[in-house]
Design brief:
heterotetramer; A mainly alpha; B mainly alpha; C alpha/beta; D mainly alpha; C: alpha/beta; Rossmann fold; 5-stranded parallel β-sheet; globular; D: mainly alpha; 23 helices
Chain lengths: 316, 115, 155, 636
Amino acid sequence: MIGFIQSVLNILLLPGLAFTLIASILLAGIDRVLVARMQRRVGPPVLQPLYDVLKCLGKETIVPRKANEKVFLLAPAVGLISVLVTAMFLPIGNVSAIRTNADMIVILYLLTLASVTLIVGSAASGSPFAGVGLSREMVAMISYELPLVMVMLTVGFVCGNGLATFSLAKIGAYQAANGPLLLNPVLWPAAIALLFVIPCEVGQQPFDIDEAETEICEGVLAEYSGKPLAQFKMMHNVKMYVMSGLFCALFLNIQTGFFLADILIYCVSCVLVTFVSMSVPHAVTARFRVEQVFKFYWTVVTGCAALSLILVWIGL
Amino acid sequence: MTFNYFVSFFFIVLGLFCIITRHNLFKVVIGMSVVDYGTNLLIVSIGASNKGTAPIYAAGEIVPGTWFVDPIPQALTLTSIVIGACITAMALSLVIKIYSKYGTLDTREIRRLHG
Amino acid sequence: MLFDLDKKINEAIDDAASKSLWLYHINAGSCNGCDIEIVAALTPRYDAERLGCKLTGSPRQADIVLVSGPVTLQSRDRLIRTLAQVPEPYCLVTVGSCPCSGNVFKGSYAVCGPVDKYRHVDVSVAGCTPKPEAIMAGIAQAAAILKEKRKGMHE
Amino acid sequence: MENFPILAIMTLFMGAFINSLVGRRSHKARVAVVFTTMAISLLLVVSMVPAVMFRGEIITYWMGGWAPEAGWAYGIGLEVDALSLFFGLIVTIAVMVSGTYSFTYMKRDDSQVNFYTLFLMLAGSVLGLVLSGDLFNIFVMVEIMTFTAVALTAFRNDTEGALEGAFKYLVVGSLGSVSILTGTILIYGCLHTLNLAQIADLAIHTRNPVMVVAFGFLFVGFCTKAFMFPFQPLAADAHAVAPASISMMISGVLTKCGVYGMIRLVYVLFQNIGQTHVQYLVTGMGCLTMFICVTMAFNQHNFKRLLAFHSISQVGYVITAIGLGTAVGLGAGLYHAINHTLFKGLLFLVAGAVQHQTGTLDLDELGGLSKKMPKTTLLFLIGAASISGIPPFNGFASKWMIYQSIFSKAVNTGNIFFLLVCIVALLTSVLTLASFVKVAQSVFFGQCAVLCRDAEECEKGMRIPMWVLAILCVVLGLFPDQFGELFLKPAAGAAMGADVYAAAMLSGKAVTSMPAIYGYIGTWSPIVWIVLLLIVTAGMTIFSVSAPIRKPEALGEGEVEDEHVLPENAKYEPFFSGEESVHSHVTGSDLFWGFKENWKKYFSFWHDWHSGIVNDYELYGVVFLAAALIYCILFI
């Protein structure tokens, strides 16, 4: 019985819902502040993402005439839920809300599901900007899926010592035993590849080819306003937290004895990962063109991932 | 017996060559039936042997030491010939319909489904 | 609902309405003088993001609609159509003196009057190319008006 | 129980015969005859399930009572073990569904009697192929199957390219049949028997080159029937022009016969799946087909041709999983085989419904059907979600098992070839998702095309079969373990236990041993996951805030979506940066510009490779035959 309450608490409170929502809003706020500071300007208050979401909740929702109303309103909810459920799998230290022995494949598919709901929602909105936006989102998905899969296979193979594992618990245990994987030089290219994948997966500035305000008027979200828009914005923030959490789970899983220290280390490493992978490219480079994104991911990033995969395969 | 095998494989190769190179639908169908003849010859020659006689005998009349030809491949050849005939008939009816619809028999022009 | 949770949520949203302002800029035939000033207000030097401002590409996500230019004949229908597509509650801010009075172009055959003829203007930022600080002041006033409008919506 | 297999096959053939007599009188008579025939054969096959699947018995039936004497089988035998019954189930379910669908789908066509006669003959020959235990019997059934499939493909010979597609399928299909026949005869030449069980006994001891050449011929023959790599243009042409229920039969059932033949060949007849070279050959073929067909599906303009390429790439998945040689791989392959029949059948029937209502299948002319045909759109979404492997549906469960089996095989053998296969498999699933997004956007969502203005929902008679398939898709997706326990384990066990198969056939009763090695590593119990989703959804909807949802009032009677809306009340028109909203639907051809831009050379090469000329396809087939034979002679 205690185990059941403990797991329900885990799901609802700590590594589960409450922690995810708060952490994602703070992380998005810190990211925007860091970008502002890098451009030597004051930048918005840290809780700005919260205000954005609350403001969108307060505005009226217009369902365009040509939209398919059910799918138009349902897609954002399913997208937000699938991303929240993905956050359940991420371990803090060695505690995670849901534990299965094939976490990585489920995470991979839930992230795909989140992007699919974004695509189906924009397709249902019936605007030409959304049509172009969804095809760009799909191209982005194709480009980052290959390196993401390779990195997962590499880490799974390293931590499985013989039999490959897809469960984050075993990966955590391996890292607890012989240090976080980031220190292992063979895995540096894989870490770099994952750092590159994160901004494109989340749809952050240099790679947000699907919501390019200047080119295709908010592309995927052209017709969204009010509550569905709030859910999509919240999904964007939670995805940012989930991806940095995934990086921490795979490469930076430092497990000290007691839980509070784990949480602190986890938050600090999440902020660090967000800074390196999302804030710096946002402040430094302009938005990529569509085929540049594809070429960049399938040559540079896949090369890094393949390099570390082969090095691991040779048995280093 | 090996001569039969050479001839049958020659027929199969000839038929395939005819299907690949000829651009007239009728010749393609002819090529298909040549391939069928090659296989039928192969089936029959597998079961055959020089000294063997037809495996038909009245009850109790078996003289020990007589060689019989294996009957099963001959039965298979019958089926294969029947199937070859049906396929050729089907192909020819399709060729007639194609000609009435496309107005040509040249395979290079009958390529609406491509890419 | 239980211990008036929805009242607290509505108050939080009204407060948020004044803190997160998404701008959408309509150029109703302006000479681009005001457009450059608006964009200048968004650059790091004047940093409109301090107020929570962000430029959006689609009117569906607009809170504050910035209109510049004296509403020429060609852009009249487009202006009305875009304003109709913005979800409530939103503020209409006219940048420069052209939209609020027609400036030097007043009375010309190609100009059909100030923006006021088509929709109630909440804040008018005067000046032929007002300085970015003036635009920022206008946006700050619009934020307060937005909060009132939002409060009016759910009473 | 003894003669259920022969009864199932014969009812279908007898039904074809009776239908051609009685069917001319009226539509009702035809429907009665065809429906009862299909129902009886389905019942017979299902009634065999408890004995064969759960108790593991093997039912053998000797035609004409010619039981084997002194261990030497000379009569023609039917043998039903768990593997053939598994495929028998797939066949009968697919036949039942596509039969009921075609009652309403073919209502407007003329000479329907011939259609149903051919349809029942196709069903009978496919069931015969799956249940038969004699190699030449398999060849005859393959011939009947090809013959009727060609006739049915060209049934509507006024559609664009129907005759041409049927002719190409016949010519290159006969290359496959000839190679199966040659392989059978070469085996007969060495072992002097045609019975599968007998061959399974003797083939292990006789290791002479003629047997290897026979293996090569049979492998190419079954590749043709499963439309593997060089033969996929056949499938694309045949599906694009055939009526929807026939393209469901071709993609759902005919390809499975090729897969069944491949499993029998590699696991039971020659039992050489253990050799790594055979694994390279089979998995390599599956992988090649998988990737090429998915990329080919990318820039297709015809809805059914796109579905055809997808169906072949999913069969590539099945063949890849089978080529691994492990019990988990075989189980995953079989699971994906039945899933593929279900969701691919559903998608083809949806395509048929769209064609039935709007008259066209061109992706560039369709658009915005979701408002006119909401139920069909929902069915399409279920099918598309299952094929691209979205979690709660069956595609995800079987694809995930395939990845797991490939990856654990790669790790156990430490062989980099299987690692590349795993990466290609994962990549193909993303590309599958991409092309179904393209179909969703250009056919169902987006702005309403001119053609679709007056389309309305298809009749109930067409929707019921589609709902049956959709429900099966969801059920199989939610309970992968129970399905694995009941059906996959015995089927995989039957395939792996070739000696038991032989013993049962020749010397009477024998029970297949359940392979304990069939480990289904871990599960994520979808039910818990779905419950979690529901809780969170409820949470979201309760959190309601006083912000109204404004919807345009529905169009009154006779009102047309006029294009000229006054600027003032343009609130609900799509945002066109101020312009009046003209009809501009982003269709299939201009999606994925970035991806196609980078791979221009690759796409144009394959576009020219599918030249549509019969001679080229035959050339590819012959080159593949030669290459396969050389590979077999050198390595196996």
